[in-house]
Design brief:
Layout: H1 13-24, H2 33-36, H3 38-41, H4 51-63, E1 71-75, E2 82-84, H5 85-98, H6 109-118, H7 123-126, H8 134-137, H9 140-152, H10 157-172, H11 176-195, H12 207-213, H13 215-220, H14 225-237
Length: 243
Amino acid sequence: MISGIGGEKREGAEENIVKYSKKANIKITRGDKDMAKEAGGQITKESGLDMERLNKQIEFIVEIDKLKHILRQTLLIDKSRRENDAEHSWHLAMMAMILKEYAAGDIDLERVMKMVLIHDIVEIDAGDTFAYDEDANADKEERELEAAERIFSLLPEDQGNEIRALWDEFEEGETADALFAASMDRLQPLIHNHFTSGHTWAGAIRKDQVIARMSKVKKGAPALWQIVQKIVDENVEKGLLKV
């Protein structure tokens, strides 16, 4: 159930969606009210929308808007402010589309794009964890698993299961799709650091730490490994990374 839109709590799936749709200026065909009660409240395809299903989908869409408020350590390339998780995820999806030719073997681009778009949704609850903060990473997996259980369960079961499976696959990092997605996730902040004077490294991170962090690129997009090495070496020379 969606509540809080317009400052009032709304009871019932049909009422929720209709009121939300009016405020959003969206036209939704409700179908016959009597037919909506068939099959335990499910609206058939012929009679109109399944309002309970749509209500869950909109609730999830509203929930993930919070991702725009989760700030990462990475600066925007113009150095004006920190990047948020939604921007990061969009950037990875674009990178996957543009850099697909460098993937190790055949990949399913649609699945990869889905992975990178959803991979950080759990940070709505778990928060962004700095990659080189060992203490913060100690309970990262536990926090993110709890977040995945809550957030993905907001969706209808079939969609929640699909997204959870993709998220799990990304986290396990074993398939070609997951490895390429992870390669984009590693490469993007490296590029940002290169163009923001090593902002998140702050001269305190070592070369070997970054190389270890970038190892996914060697597996998922080996053709891009040389650019990783070039960026790392240049930043060592500038004193932005420790040896």
